[in-house]
Design goal:
alpha/beta; about 240 residues; about 40% helix; TIM Barrel
Length: about 240
């Protein structure tokens, strides 16, 4: 199957999972993780209407974003460096982010899924202050408590969200997690359900305001289960570009 066939299948699966959870498919954003994609595959996806793209490494995101923006400008016959909003793509940073990479990252994205410490949030705040725009961030929570995974501990999530919510230039819009790898998607369900519970607790405390409404969870092997448990963004790469 080609990337467009995969894309249609995944969109259909998202719609079916949303229906099972009595949700609208419009409430679930597909984030296409382009790590293994060729430039042509990315272009095909964008032409098909996909606007949310993601990378897990800063340098890769910078390169991909610059290439795709230049291509879109050529396609639109534009000489200026900015596209109208409907024609833009939105890049998401989903991988572990070192503090010294924040400043070079921000010109290319204003959505970071992997904030896992107060010090990283403070670094983003400092860089965002100079760019005069709010950076939308997810607090990454290590729900599985695996030492191999990044993320704040479950017990510290609410307090850290509270601290981040006081910052200027940073807007906390949700929580992110990765479930332990398993060939059985159902094994991810308890971890997604737990993240949803933490999300509900934070919302009940009015942290983040109306903007705090997202759950970034679910990848190629378990995104349908994640949607059933409340995901508003699913990060899919392998299933798209295999």
């Amino acid at each position: 199957m080609g990337v467009l066939d995969n894309y249609k299948k995944i969109r259909d699966n998202i719609a079916a999972a949303a229906a099972r959870a009595k949700r609208s498919p419009a409430d679930v954003a597909l984030i296409a993780v382009t790590k293994t994609a060729s430039p042509e595959q990315i272009k095909h996806l964008v032409e098909a209407g996909q606007r949310d793209l993601a990378e897990s490494r800063v340098q890769q995101l910078q390169q991909r974003a610059a290439q795709i923006t230049e291509w879109l400008l050529r396609q639109a016959g534009k000489t200026e460096k900015k596209l109208p909003a409907p024609e833009q793509v939105v890049w998401h940073m989903i991988g572990h982010l070192q503090r010294n990479k924040v400043k070079p990252l921000l010109p290319f994205t204003s959505i970071i899924h992997s904030v896992d410490s107060l010090r990283l949030a403070e670094e983003i705040q400092a860089a965002a202050g100079k760019s005069e725009r709010a950076v939308r961030i997810f607090l990454e929570v290590n729900v599985s408590s695996e030492s191999s995974k990044y993320g704040v501990a479950v017990g510290a999530a609410v307090h850290l969200a509270e601290q981040i919510d006081t910052m200027e230039g940073v807007q906390i819009i949700g929580l992110m997690t990765m479930a332990p790898y398993s060939e059985n998607p159902e094994k991810a369900r308890p971890y997604f359900a737990r993240l949803r519970e933490i999300h509900e607790e934070i919302r009940s405390k009015k942290i983040g305001g109306a903007g705090f409404r997202h759950l970034s969870m679910g990848m190629s092997g378990d995104y349908q289960v994640a949607i059933e448990e409340g995901a508003t963004m699913v990060r899919v790469g392998t299933a798209l570009f295999a």
